[in-house]
């Protein structure tokens, strides 16, 4: 999606963490030894507490302010600014749909950063850390998506990634994570339903994103083009369990944690076309997922 170049940010709570701050190495028994691409295959779009997969956080993180993200033109030119402006629009949307809404913290990761859910980097992919109510994104991850997985990862795909992680924050705030805890893997598991709902939430936000305006009444975002929507759907398909497993040679639905490519695209589309009311992935049968 394209931001209106004259839209003004008007302040942000997003912070940068990484080089020069407290970074943590992955524990010896963790995933680092498997290589970056294997890490991506295992925990891409985790959307939950990844402490069990990654080493615990160590050191003291030093956050810094995000600089140079003042207008929509900055967001169109820079991945960091695109995420910061996306945060602004997402907070505006969810504050009108969730009573008592509180915004998550957004951390732009520079290289690697320690968190209560392990180490954040472009190898771990974007994730939401529930105990911190914080979203971590290393923007260089989008380059990994392009080079390793063939996804376009353009502007709308990047905002889809952020909106998906926001979806997990909404699930945390509204008690969905508590009502539907982890019950293992499989095509109808709570984990898959949780991820598909976050995709649906992302689609619902994107459909309504042009309604968010800055302090001067200027819309942050322009309506997405068909090409941009295809780009977002491509990103959703790229991180389907079946697509990821196919690259390792064996597709096993009983080990799925996020849903197939077709499911992720379908639920994103359901949210985009029909809004939040279409996003109850927990009330349908496994065959309807």
TrEMBL record:
Keywords: Membrane, Transmembrane, Transmembrane helix. One of its GO terms (cellular component) is membrane. It is a single-pass membrane protein. InterPro entries: Uncharacterised_pept_Zn_put. The chain crosses the membrane at residues 24-45. It is found in: Membrane. It holds the Pfam family Zn_peptidase. Residues 1-21 are annotated as: Disordered. The keyword Transmembrane applies. It comes from the Bacteria. This is Putative neutral zinc metallopeptidase. It comes from Microbacterium laevaniformans.
């Amino acid at each position: 999606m394209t931001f209106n170049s004259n839209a003004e940010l008007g302040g942000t709570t997003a912070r940068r963490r990484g080089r020069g701050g407290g970074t943590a190495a992955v524990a010896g028994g963790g995933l680092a030894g498997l290589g970056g691409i294997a890490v991506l295959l295992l925990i891409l779009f985790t959307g939950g507490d990844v402490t069990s997969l990654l080493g615990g956080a160590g050191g003291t993180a030093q956050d810094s302010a995000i600089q140079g993200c003042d207008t929509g033109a900055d967001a169109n030119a820079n991945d960091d600014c695109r995420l910061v402006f996306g945060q602004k629009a997402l907070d505006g949307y969810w504050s009108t749909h969730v009573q008592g809404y509180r915004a998550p913290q957004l951390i732009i990761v520079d290289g690697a950063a320690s968190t209560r859910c392990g180490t954040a980097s472009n190898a771990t992919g974007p994730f939401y850390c529930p105990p911190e109510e914080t979203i971590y994104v290393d923007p260089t991850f989008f380059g990994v998506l392009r080079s390793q997985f063939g996804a376009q990862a353009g502007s709308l795909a990047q905002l889809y990634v952020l909106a998906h992680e926001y979806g997990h924050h909404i699930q945390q705030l509204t008690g969905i994570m508590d009502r539907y805890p982890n019950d293992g893997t499989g095509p109808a598991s709570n984990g898959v339903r949780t991820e598909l709902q976050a995709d649906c939430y992302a689609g619902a936000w994107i459909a309504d994103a042009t309604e968010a305006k800055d302090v001067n009444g200027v819309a942050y975002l322009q309506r997405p083009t068909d090409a941009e929507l295809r780009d977002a759907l491509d990103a959703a398909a790229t991180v389907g369990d079946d697509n990821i497993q196919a690259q390792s040679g064996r597709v096993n639905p009983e080990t799925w944690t996020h849903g197939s490519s077709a499911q992720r695209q379908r639920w994103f589309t359901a949210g985009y076309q029909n809004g939040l009311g279409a996003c109850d992935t927990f009330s349908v049968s496994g065959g309807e997922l």
